[in-house]
Amino acid sequence: MQLLTVPPHLDATPPTSGPVTLPHCPTLGGVDEEKRVMEGDSVILDSDEVKSVSVTEGDSVALDSGLTEVKYDDWIQWWFGDENIVIAEIYKLFNLIAVYDEHPVHCCGPTEAVIRLVLSALVGVATVLILVYDIRSRRAERGQAHIHTSGGVDEEKRVKERGSVTLDSGLTEVKDDDVIQWRFRNTVIAEINKPADSFTVYDDVPDGRFRDRLKLDNQTGSLTITNIRIKHTGDYERQINSVSKRFRLIAEKSVIKGYPVTLDSGLTEVKDDDVIQWRFRNTVIAEINVTADSFTVYDDVPDGRFRDRLKLDNQTGSLTITYTTTEHAGDYERQINSVMVYFYLTVIDKEMTVKAGYSVTLDSGLTEVKDDDVIQWRFRNTVIAEINKPADSFTVYDDVPDERFRDRLKLDNQTGSLTITNTTTEHAGHYELQINSVIKRFWLNVFVYPVLKSVKAGDSVTLDSGFTEVKDDDVIQWRFRNTVIAEINVTADSFTVYDDVPDGRFRDRLKLDNQTGSLTITNTTTEHAGDYDTNYMRTYFLLSVHDEVKSVSVTEGDSVALDSGLTEVKYNDWIMWWFGDENILIAEIDKQFNIIAVYDERADGRFRDRLKLDNQTGSLTITNTTTEHAGDYGLMIYSAGFPSKAFRFSSKAFRVSLYDPVHCCGPTEAVIRLVLSALVGVATVLILVYDIRSRRAERGQAHIHTSGSA
Fold first, then answer.
1. 325-349: per-residue pLDDT in tens?
2. pLDDT digit string (tens) for 627-643?
3. Could you give the CA distance from residue 297 to residue 277 in angstroms, rounded to a whole number?
4. What is the C-alpha to C-alpha distance for residues 535 and 384, in angstroms, rounded to an integer?
5. Which of 281, 288, 280, 352 has the alpha carbon at shortest distance from 321?
6. In CATH, which of 3.30.110.40, 2.60.40.10, 2.60.120.590, 3.40.30.10 is domain 550-659?
């Protein structure tokens, strides 16, 4: 007879003789001997001890389970004989306690019964040790689900700071008897109790870090975390009734090869009892032990790749890797005391920038694809193009992930390079090229055109945030030349203008719309001209503030030249000409992107075949002018190409007026001008007649004087 404690996932039927083989056995602990085994393999436990029990016929006998208490999730079975007949069991989870005393018991003679009893007892003892340990270990794992120093999770999700992530419940619909809990480091942060019709988020626990950041889907039970910071990364657990799943949120960081990157500790100051460790692929590379007054970087491990590249901030515990290479890409862990935070660092081989609407080519680096090459292009881990030369296959998948690449991908069958045409901001991000086993990473920036704004000095101008209403979890920052000048943090109920930065030029001039997040600048001066943007980068603005407008007159049909004031366009200059109250871009030169263009179809086509742009100076000529070309023109000259790198910005304003030498005025003005012209003509005739007669009279008098003298 044998006692068998079995969790539901294991077969409850042991062998009847010989060594005991238990399939799918977990690692043992707390026993005399450990045997480690991979899942799916087998383990053999040698039968080296048998517990003999003797009893006089007619008396009672007790077979000891070895337990002091049956736990809530224990399943205990007693079985008997060659046929492994279950004669008693306890299964606490199902509130089952039963004996099955109707089974036949006269199975064998006394000698065979003793032998079988010995073997059964041996198997029972071994099985009890294994399976009770397994069940209690699982209980302990549930209680310590927040401590996972390596592995131990079902799904990993990478998320960028300030981004959002949804942890999927796996349900399409919450059932009437479902109880769902979401935990972060063993603290319940959200709960659905359908029988009680309760749907709750506990966003003020454990320390308010989730306040206004949790959204619970009442239909599916999925949990969304918004506006993520480093302190929100780590291990989460979802429990639906008795079934659990563990998630790990990993902070994703990207850096261009050769540039430094800082992995944030999440602390503002290291405390006196803190012990901080930074690990790269499970190897300690930096450590702070405040108690021991120790601040150490181990830059010679694991293979010297970090040598002279690690900088540890002794105040905050943050770690900086200087001059990154592709060898530094991978998984990092930060442990502060017992709390873990996880990072994944991507090192980009090449950063590229393209203007929206233009094409860009991601270069494979090959001159020719070889016969055995297999090449894949991926966008955010989704394959978008592939060359399999052995299979003679050349394919673009332009309908994935959401058709953003439809009819925009061109694959060079000779070199494997990939061209994206008619780019939009949706095409910005991380691309990977894999040639056989070698991976190369690209980062593509898609540069949207700015909104051009022009205002007369002293007037006000409003920069639109792009929102109709600020949401509960929004954090909006306005920047001027990369300096924050205004901020809305709805979670903190904070609406702030920093009008004393960068040098007080905005003092008492900034007004923030608390509903839409738009920014108004009042009483503008030329100091306020330049680039503005928000952290959402929905759009950005170039503001021209002019205190002088140059008037230019031209006869209709003639040409007019608007002078840029430059003698030469520099390699990093961006020159834009705009027209009208709507600041319509009609011409540009951008040396960095090799763009020299006139947009003569814009503004209702009035400039068609009439615009000429001087490639050397950037000046603009309008030919064959008509009255439609009269109005305001502006010039913006922007150096370095990007707002954060701008070091020069200038602007000019022109007002062009035209006149017709024939059809110059209305009928009334024409009559007046005709009368005046007639009067001028009569006066001119009278003067000339008088002048002629006077001269004739003078000649006559001169003749008389001459005769008299003779």
1. 999 999 999 999 888 999 999 999 9
2. 999 999 999 998 864 44
3. 10
4. 29
5. 280
6. 2.60.40.10
